[in-house]
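Sharing a chain and its predicted structure for anyone who wants a worked example. Both blocks are below, sequence first, tokens second.
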Amino acid sequence: MTTRFDNLILYDGLGTRMEAASLLIDGERIAAAGREAQALPADCIIDGTGLACTPGWIQSHSHIALDGLPNMQAQIARDNTEAAVTASAVRNSLRCLKSGLTGVRDMGTAFDVSIKLREAIRGGVILGPHIYASGRVLCMTGGHGADFGIEVDGADEARKAARGQIKRGADLLKIMATGGGQSRGMKAGVPQLNYEEILAITEEAHHAGISAAAHAQGKEGVMNCLRAGVDCIEHGVTLDGEQIDRMVSQGTWFCPTLMGLWYVIERGTDAEIPQYVVDKCKIQAETHFSGFTEAYKAGVKILAGTDAGTPFNFQDDIASEFRMMNQLGMNVDDIIISATSSPAKAFQAFDKTGSIEAGKWADLTFVEGDPKQDLDAFKRVRMVYKMGRRVYEQRDGRDVFLSIV
């Protein structure tokens, strides 16, 4: 079965924009795009006038089993069974699809639920995006993430836990290098896992051919990660020239998760977010947003991710991260790259997805309007294709999901 879209505004995920463009899908894959596709026959031809098409968006930092409730720690304590965590993850998978996401990198779930979710989606048991799963996070005893992670102390324990996650099928290893904004009783940026522990985890990840990503919010913790060769810094928060220069020289990815901080500050304690969370996020905001701008200007490789699941930071709200990135200086072409080809490269999936090129999976997001002219177009998702199948469409104002059978 071949389908051809005509009259599209087409963003290829690599920095090129085409008008009045065509796109031909053949089964699971893109057969042709642009002028090359215009003259090719198809079983079904769809007029895409008024629509812009990009590669399917990839969320680079989510906790897919968390729902964005005001008190994140309270949800973690409440959902203390694998069944409860799984139910939230399955529900949120549909929310991801309808917001334009064909891929999600999950950065920590209890019970390794994200690994099991990935397999259920691949097997056609449930409907959802491609999942890049870390499973449980690796943290120090009593540290940030201890309530849904694996606690380790010392390089040997860190190495063994890393090997265990690899055995369970993790696509990447998530390291909790510092304290965080959502954990009671600790400063957000204090170092937790030390350099030797981080190095042991990173070495095991690289031996297995997967990446290591680190929650790192203070300078000492970030520098420990950079010295250890961690592939991606999550949050950053206190980036300065030394950290940025090293990230550029090493080719380190950076996922800033801007909305995770913004929503806490915007909603505050009046929305029942705990006072300690608001206080810590206000301190982080003094450097985080300006640090993102400086990192972008310097050429740090950016991944779009929201820290979805934190307070009021819902799984279907990647468009707000795009808007914030734009307000802080990132142009629309680079925003699209940060949500398409860049994460595909970072997650070792660029041979299959992340750009509109012949032979790639037909992972596609269609929005009403042109985001270069109207940034709100990112919020008007009208159709989503995953591996050539229309898995979501907005029909007469209703969300319609394709059956998995």
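Comments welcome. Residues 181 and 188 are 5 Å apart (CA to CA).
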